[in-house]
Specification:
single chain; alpha/beta; Leucine Aminopeptidase, subunit E, domain 1; Aminopeptidase; 2 domains; 9-stranded mixed sheet; 15 helices; about 20% strand; binds ligand BES; binds zinc ion; binds manganese (II) ion
Length: about 500
């Protein structure tokens, strides 16, 4: 397989839209307070008055997601509703994303090229609309016998968009989607590591280091080794280092379970196919670092991607085994299906102690419990650090990647120790409070560093979301690349220079 589908190319075109080389035009339209499309703003494009007519008849109201298609002068003109322009700011950005993405979904199978009419929008709104258009064009192309169509080219009618930023973001999300949705045997840990190396071979500002199985054993990564040893495809940890400054690094840790059968505590039921996306955390870290490396930021960032396959076999770790983790903590295995915390626990400890990280953020499809609590569209945020909480929530509002704060309840810490018969702590407890248990377990490995855990089991996997997901997510319940935008915005908020000029 190839890891990483290229997004459509983007070019600026400022001539007459009806003589552009594209066969389709996508024209966003706001809704006025009286519930009608603001026809005046696009009157010059409405040459034969169809939009005006549809408005007069009440046939098109320009609500978010509404679409009105007409064929004019050899072009398919797709008017897309953006909702009320006096809406609250973050909602406006999301409305623009959804509106444009809905329009793109109308043409994506039939058009090679689409011209986006963005010149009448505020610059930030236009940027978000463009990003969403490109994200909506995504198709998982690598695994069909016939190549499915993508829009090949997108034209935009304004020259002031920061296309370096836009393309960095979109490429990062595409990469994360490809990785998160890849079938397990297309992407076992070693091959993933080789592909990541290959990907960054042309990015000299990112150093890729792979910890192979022997090294993981030798250096005492007991969590990664125990979970991963049951498969003939042995585990590996990928370390990506983007060194744009000399301060201690910001560490990003991404759970990468290439497939989670549950191990000896094997999973049952149909939804197990979604466990190919139990690598969505690692995919988000990979995609974010890909994007950040293109933005020439003054930041020091390390990505840690511990990669395993969790399967039952004669070599698998067993319930009641004890594991000596990288930092010396002895964990009793009470459930082999609570494997994510074992692999990222090692990586978090390594970030805290070996890398002396300034702060640590992990993304992990950690628990079914968080999906029960927050549903398929919202990730859980666990942190005791107020600044981390505020900046991550702010990044969430800006990007539309939904995140909700969850408690780190001290009284529940007793569960960790009281559940272990022979070890220091148990890897799993009872069903109640399962997501908090996972967060408290991981926190122990952060060794006092500012730390945030994002349980992305819902939006990371696209699990149970296909009928309610925004139009810029991929179809068929595929993983949407959740977290890439969140991390990029978060990192940008952490460095002085607000938005650096991008390199190509
Ligand atoms: N990868 C799963 C979490 C998951 C479950 C994500 C369902 C999406 C949908 C994780 O490794 C897991 O199996 N967690 C267990 C933990 C339990 C054994 C303590 C769970 O949530 O059941
Ligand atoms: Zn898992
Ligand atoms: Mn599991």
């Amino acid at each position: 397989m190839v890891l990483y589908t290229r997004p459509p190319t983007v070019e600026v075109y400022q001539g007459d839209p009806f003589t552009s080389p594209c066969e389709s035009l996508i024209v966003p339209v706001f809704q006025s307070p009286d519930g009608k499309p603001v026809v005046d703003a696009v009157r010059d494009l409405d040459r034969s008055g169809q939009l005006k007519g549809a408005s007069d008849l009440g046939f098109f109201k320009a609500g978010v997601g509404e679409v009105f298609k007409v064929y004019v002068d050899g072009k398919l003109v797709i008017y897309v509703g953006l909702g009320r322009f006096d809406d609250e700011w973050f909602r406006l950005l999301e409305n623009a994303r959804r509106g444009i993405a809905g329009g793109v979904k109308q043409v994506v199978e039939s058009a090679r090229c689409s011209l986006l009419v963005l010149s009448r929008l505020n610059l930030d709104v236009a940027r978000e609309a463009l990003i969403a258009a490109l994200l909506a064009s995504y198709r998982l192309e690598a695994f069909t016998s016939e190549r499915r169509r993508l829009i090949e080219k997108v034209l935009v009618d304004r020259g002031d968009l920061d296309l370096g930023y836009v393309l960095a973001v979109v490429e990062g999300v595409y990469l994360a989607r490809d990785m998160a949705n890849a079938p397990p045997h297309e992407l076992p840990p070693r091959r993933l590591a080789d592909m990541v190396k290959e990907l960054f071979s042309k990015h000299p500002n990112v150093v890729v280091e792979v910890f192979d199985f022997d090294r993981l054993v030798k250096e005492g990564f007991g969590g990664i080794v125990s979970v991963g040893k049951g498969s003939s495809e042995k585990p590996a940890m990928i370390m990506l280092h983007y060194r744009g400054s000399s301060e201690p690094p910001l560490a990003l840790v991404g759970k990468t379970v290439v497939f989670d059968t549950g191990g000896i505590n094997i999973k049952t039921g149909e939804s197990i196919v979604y466990m190919r996306s139990d690598k969505a955390g690692g995919a988000a870290v990979l995609g974010a670092i890909w994007a950040l490396s293109k933005l020439n930021l003054k930041a020091n960032i390390v990505g840690l991607i511990p990669a395993v396959i969790n399967v039952p076999s004669g070599e698998s770790y067993l319930p009641s085994d004890i594991i000596r983790m990288w930092d010396g903590t002895v964990v009793e295995v009470t459930n082999t299906d609570a494997e994510g915390r074992l692999i990222i626990g090692d990586a978090i400890a390594y970030a805290a102690k070996a890398l002396n990280a300034r702060e640590i953020v992990d993304l992990a499809t950690l628990t079914g419990a968080i999906v029960v609590a927050l549903g398929p569209l919202i990730a859980g945020l666990f942190t005791r650090d107020e600044r981390l909480r505020e900046e991550l929530l702010e990044a969430s509002r800006r990007t539309g990647e939904k995140l909700w704060p969850m408690p780190m309840e001290d009284d529940y810490k007793q569960w960790l120790t009281k559940g272990a018969m022979v070890g220091d702590i148990a890897n799993a407890g009872q069903r109640v409070g399962g997501a908090i248990y996972g967060a408290l377990f991981l926190e122990r490995f952060s060794h006092g560093k500012p730390y945030a855990h994002l349980d992305i089991a819902g939006p990371g996997m696209g699990y149970e979301a296909s009928n309610i997901a925004p139009a810029y997510w991929p179809d068929k319940g595929l993983a949407p690349g959740y977290g890439v935008r969140l991390i990029i915005e978060y990192v940008l908020s952490r460095i002085e220079k607000p938005r650096a000029q991008a390199s190509s």
